[in-house]
């Protein structure tokens, strides 16, 4: 009976540890969040670095891009310096303006100005076009380098974006929400300025008539 009780307790303990470990391991990965997942749309991909390498601070994060993507614009983060690694294209891509593209952005590397502590979190972001068809999964392997060791986020743990069909009314060149809000604000200020100007003219005319 005692042996059975011990085995039962051990099994319950192991099950509890596994239950606790599963969500912890799931949240420990370098993850990616997309502002848009529609195939052919422009999207801002935000990569979250939530931990170091077995307790060692992170020194760089190298994000590899799928071959279907030829360009990417990194978002500036004051904690990191940014560099791009280019790879030659099999065939040059003609552009409406400028010379044909002969290279693509194969990788974007964020290097920490001060190593990111293993118990701290930060994010880096890229703006790019999601080239593909609905149902495609774009993978972005990430090499996380630390002061001691490194972690290669590939395979089952690779950050990825599943492409979806565009929602009716949306366009492939959808303006990011922040830009749209700024545009609306600018228009509102412009209209307000016109109203104020019109009121000023009325007041000026009225004052002249009174003085006359």
Tell me the CATH topology of the largest domain.
Immunoglobulin-like
Helix content: 25-40%
User: Which consecutive residue ranges, at least 5 long each, have pLDDT under 50?
Assistant: 1-28, 174-199
CATH class division of the largest domain:
Mainly Beta
Number of helices: 2
Written as H for each helix and E for each strand, in order along the chain, the element string is: HEEEEEEEEEEEH
Structure description:
The protein has 212 residues and is an alpha+beta fold. It has two domains: 134 residues, Uncharacterised protein YcnI-like PF07987, DUF1775 (Immunoglobulin-like, Sandwich), CATH 2.60.40; 25 residues. The chain is built from two helices and eleven strands; from the N terminus they run αβββββββββββα. The chain has a five-stranded antiparallel sheet, with no helix packed on it. Strand 5 and strand 6 form a beta hairpin. The chain is globular, with a radius of gyration of 27 Å. The N terminus is likely disordered.
Secondary structure blueprint with pairings:
Blueprint: H1 2-27, E1 31-34, E2 42-49, E3 58-64, E4 73-74, E5 80-93, E6 101-116, E7 122-129, E8 137-139, E9 142-146, E10 150-153, E11 160-162, H2 177-211
Antiparallel strand pairs: 1-2, 2-7, 3-6, 3-9, 4-7, 5-6, 8-11, 9-10
């Amino acid at each position: 009976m005692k042996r059975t009780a011990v085995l039962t307790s051990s099994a319950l303990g192991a099950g509890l540890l596994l239950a606790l470990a599963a969500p912890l391991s799931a949240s420990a990965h370098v993850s990616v969040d997309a502002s848009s997942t529609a195939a052919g749309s422009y999207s801002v991909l935000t990569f979250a670095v939530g931990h170091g390498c077995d307790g060692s601070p992170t020194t760089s994060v190298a994000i590899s891009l799928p071959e279907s993507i030829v360009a990417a614009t990194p978002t500036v983060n004051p904690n990191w310096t940014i560099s791009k690694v280019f790879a030659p294209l099999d065939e040059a891509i003609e552009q409406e303006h400028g010379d044909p593209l002969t290279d693509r952005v194969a990788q974007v590397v964020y290097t920490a100005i001060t190593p990111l502590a293993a118990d701290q979190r930060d994010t880096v972001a890229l703006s790019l076009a999601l080239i593909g068809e609905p149902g495609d999964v774009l993978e972005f392997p990430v090499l996380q380098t630390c002061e001691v060791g490194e972690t290669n986020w590939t395979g089952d743990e690779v950050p990825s974006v599943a492409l979806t069909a565009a929602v009716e009314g949306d366009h492939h060149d959808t303006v990011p929400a922040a830009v749209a809000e700024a545009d609306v604000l600018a228009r509102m200020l412009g209209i307000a300025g016109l109203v104020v100007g019109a009121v000023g003219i009325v007041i000026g005319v009225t004052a002249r008539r009174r003085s006359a």
